[in-house]
């Protein structure tokens, strides 16, 4: 069996690659990073190390690479006879790779390949694969879509494993935390016979992606933005500061209330889930930069993202969202000259009224919430 995986970065090599390899699937990584693609083709294998006292190593083989910048037509050829297509490339990039996937699906039609195939976006976002589907369909005709609908699935997924930025002599080597979780929405699959060992299949993904995004990612981002405010460079250093830890705990308390109320999670089980997350952030064997976790702040301030979604839904339920709004105030001050979205956000704040910027980046229309965020941003003007 063969997988085509878009994004040979941290989670691509450090988690999706591990699972596909363990299921005896050949992996064709598609990426624009020449160094990584050349190394994959030269070596055909790489190592993953678990960041833990035992330092277990996982050896991944049967991998190769395709550079989609220079070999776009090859990507379509690989998709034409693939058994599974996955992505871990970043939510903002999905629209750019969608035409490549569309070409591959078109080639399947031309070849008469009607084998069912699932295209699975493993990104930190709600409804990632379904979003990718709309981008892919933008590049196909109505007739092609009608034919493909029967056998191409876009099941949503949630992936969880903290993998920091890597800097090793070997460009393929990747150090990862031991914890991992990959959940796929079974109801949206077309190739139901291909169930990967190490993946959890659920009849509905919504509770799982919301639990992950609003706990791991809201919490992680809270640590990053609070850390930046207090001058820390890494998550593990920042979390030793009582002010950062308490901001994290307060935010998790709020998202936990929402998740328990909305999805009926057992409060005790959820408390354990949160405690595990906090311990993962403290992992002394991982050095995760604040700038990685805080990256792309405009995306993170989105309407269906890790802060605004829970704020909206807690407000609807008349539950507390004070600490979430407080953290949002810090995000508007997040200043990383190496991050395009941070630069863009700071430029917007210099040239437009604050209220307009809040409306534009969060998509909020509710005057009360906009005013509360405005007050929170202004509170941090003096720091
Ligand atoms: N690292 C983590 O801890 C983690 C965990 C869970 C989920 N995720 C999610 O996985 C996705 C990838 O994150 P990551 O940390 O692996 O990022 P990364 O930057 O390490 O990897 C992304 C890869 O995509 C490639 N890429 C970018 N634009 C491309 C294009 N147009 N065509 C082909 N390749 C392109 C980059 O070269 C890079 O190799 C994100 O959605 C992230 O939220 C990350
Ligand atoms: O990848 P992002 O930018 O959406 O979020 C940054 C981190 O919170 C994220 O990558 C986590 O490390 C990961 O989601 C853990 O599963």
UniProtKB/TrEMBL annotation:
Enzyme class at the top of the EC tree: oxidoreductase
This protein's UniProt keywords: NAD, Oxidoreductase
EC number: 1.1.1.17
Catalytic activity: D-mannitol 1-phosphate + NAD(+) = beta-D-fructose 6-phosphate + NADH + H(+)
Superkingdom, natural source: Bacteria
Mannitol dehydrogenase C-terminal domain boundaries: 205-380
Annotated Mannitol dehydrogenase N-terminal domain residues: 1-198
Gene Ontology molecular function: mannitol-1-phosphate 5-dehydrogenase activity
InterPro entries noted in UniProt: 6-PGluconate_DH-like_C_sf, 6PGD_dom2, Mannitol_1_phos_5_DH, Mannitol_DH, Mannitol_DH_C, Mannitol_DH_CS, Mannitol_DH_N, NAD(P)-bd_dom_sf
Residue sites binding NAD(+) per the record: 3-14
Family matches, as Pfam families: Mannitol_dh, Mannitol_dh_C
Family, as annotated: Belongs to the mannitol dehydrogenase family.
Protein name (database record): Mannitol-1-phosphate 5-dehydrogenase
Source species of the chain: Fundicoccus culcitae
Native organism taxonomy: Bacteria, Bacillati, Bacillota, Bacilli, Lactobacillales
């Amino acid at each position: 069996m063969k997988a085509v995986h878009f994004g040979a970065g941290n989670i691509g090599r450090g988690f999706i690659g591990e699972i596909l390899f363990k299921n005896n699937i050949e992996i064709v990584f598609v990426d624009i990073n020449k160094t990584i693609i050349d190394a994959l083709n030269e070596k055909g294998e790489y190592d993953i190390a678990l960041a833990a006292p035992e330092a277990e190593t996982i050896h991944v083989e049967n991998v190769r690479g395709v550079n989609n910048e220079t070999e776009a037509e090859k990507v379509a050829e690989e998709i034409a006879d693939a058994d599974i297509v996955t992505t871990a490339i970043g939510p903002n990039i999905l629209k750019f790779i969608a035409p490549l996937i569309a070409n591959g699906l078109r080639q399947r039609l031309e070849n008469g390949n009607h084998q069912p195939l699932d295209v699975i976006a493993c990104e930190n976002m709600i409804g990632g694969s379904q979003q990718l589907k709309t981008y892919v369909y933008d590049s196909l005709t109505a007739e092609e879509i009608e034919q493909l609908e029967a056998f191409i699935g876009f099941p949503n997924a949630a992936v969880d494993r903290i993998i920091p930025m890597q800097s090793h002599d070997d460009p393929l080597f990747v150090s990862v935390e031991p914890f991992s979780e990959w959940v796929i929405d079974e109801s949206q699959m077309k190739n139901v016979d291909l169930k990967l060992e190490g993946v959890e299949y659920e009849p509905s993904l919504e509770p799982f992606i919301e639990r992950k995004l609003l706990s791991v990612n809201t919490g992680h981002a809270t640590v990053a933005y609070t850390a930046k405010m207090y001058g820390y460079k890494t998550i593990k250093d920042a979390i030793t500061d009582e002010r950062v830890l308490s901001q994290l705990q307060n935010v998790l308390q709020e998202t936990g209330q929402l998740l328990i109320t909305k999805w009926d999670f057992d409060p005790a089980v959820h408390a354990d889930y949160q405690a595990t997350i906090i311990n993962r952030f403290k992992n002394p064997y991982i050095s995760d930069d604040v700038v990685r976790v805080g990256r792309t702040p405009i995306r993170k301030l989105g309407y269906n993202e890790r802060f605004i979604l829970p704020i909206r839904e807690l407000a609807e339920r008349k539950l507390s969202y004070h600490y979430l709004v407080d953290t949002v105030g810090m995000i508007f001050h997040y200043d990383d000259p190496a991050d395009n979205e941070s630069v863009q956000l700071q430029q917007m704040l210099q040239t437009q009224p604050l209220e307009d910027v809040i409306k534009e980046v969060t998509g909020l229309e509710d005057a009360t919430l906009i005013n509360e965020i405005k007050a929170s941003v202004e509170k941090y003007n003096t720091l």
